[in-house]
Amino acid sequence: MTTDRIPVIPRGVRRHHDAVRGREVLLGPERALMLDDTAVAILAAVDGTRSLGDIAGHLSAAYNAPRDVIEPDVVAFLDGLADQMLIAYA
Asked: Which residues are CB-neighbours of 37 under 8 A, at least 6 positions away?
């Protein structure tokens, strides 16, 4: 598992607040993914400059949680989105 990859939100994909449901969603071509609070926190850290490791470190500090617990979850979540073409790696 390499954590030096830099995730980016590709063109045509965006976060959006769904006022009807009162939740954040990730909108992509012909799909919408409902986001929980954890997903929102991870995606908020995706800025096109931070690596997976940097995002895990940021979240670890922000939530006072062990990095070794957070990092595998961050990688798995973003890799899952990449499989769905909702995240790309620079």
From this structure: none
- pTM > 0.85: yes
Alpha helices in the chain (DSSP H): 37-44, 52-62, 67-83
Label residues 44-81 b or e (16+ Cβ within 10 Å = b).
ebbeeeebbbebbbbbbeeeeeeeeebbeebbebbeeb
Residue 32, beta-bridge partner list: 27
> Is 7-89 in CATH node 1.10.10.1150?
yes
Cα angle, residue 14 at apex, residues 24 and 31 outer, rounded to 5°: 80
Burial label for 6, CB within 10 Å (0-12, 13-18, 19+), is middle
Q: What is the pLDDT of residues 19-65, one digit of tens each?
A: 998 999 999 999 999 999 999 999 999 999 999 999 999 999 999 99
